[in-house]
Amino acid sequence: MKRIITSIILAIIILSIYTPQDKVSAATAAKNPQQLVKVSTALIGTPYKFGGTSKKGFDCSGFVGFAYANGLGKKLPRSSADMWKVGKAVKSPQVGDLVFFQTYKKGPSHVGIYIGNNSFVHASSSKGVMINKLSDSYYKTRYLGAKKY
Q1: What is the number of domains present in the chain?
Q2: CA 104, CA 57: separation in Å to the nearest integer?
Q3: Which is nearest to 32 in space by CA: 45, 49, 19, 42?
Q4: pLDDT band at residue 19, thresholds of 50, 70 and 90?
Q5: 58 pairs with which residues across the strands?
Q6: Which end of the chain has less Cβ packing within 10 Å, N or C?
Q7: Where are the beta strands (DSSP E) in 1-149?
Q8: CB 91 within 8 A of CB 99
Q9: Which residues carry out catalysis?
Q10: For 97-132, how does the pLDDT look when each residue is reduced to its tens digit (9 = 90+)?
């Protein structure tokens, strides 16, 4: 319960920092990672659905693809493994970079969007779209790295 409340408060703070924008051109959005944060955090609470790519339900890569398409106007590969293959590795993630984890199989099997302050938003198979810290014990031990697109 404490994590849920913390996640909600963090999302409210993040959303209050950024100026709302109704429509953002692809050219503007590509230079505006805050728009990606706005789009992705607005989806907090969306349920998890294996293979899901819409507001009815997301899996991790479906969520990231949806957020990137609607927040930055960029199309990403469908799977976390394919996203890992095409991104440019970065030493320390910046807002809008993707963060990858090895969860149920060897290699990248989970992906989220870094939103700053050691936090990332992702579609958790147990709780749907939510915010976690890279330092959370589960994610810290499974972290593979970050990629820029």
Answers
A1: 1
A2: 20
A3: 19
A4: very low
A5: 48, 53
A6: N
A7: 53-54, 57-58, 88-90, 98-101, 110-116, 119-124, 128-133, 143-148
A8: no
A9: 60, 110, 122
A10: 999 999 999 999 999 999 999 999 999 999 999 999
CATH value at residue 53: 3.90.1720.10
Residues 6+ apart with CB under 8 A from 114: 93, 94, 95, 96, 97, 98, 99, 120, 134, 146
- CA diameter of the chain: 40
DSSP lists the bridge partners of residue 56 as none
67-100 tens-digit pLDDT: 999 999 999 999 999 999 998 999 999 999 999 9
What the block records as the tokens of 101 is: 């984890």
Identify the domain containing residue 26 by its residue range.
Answer: 2-148
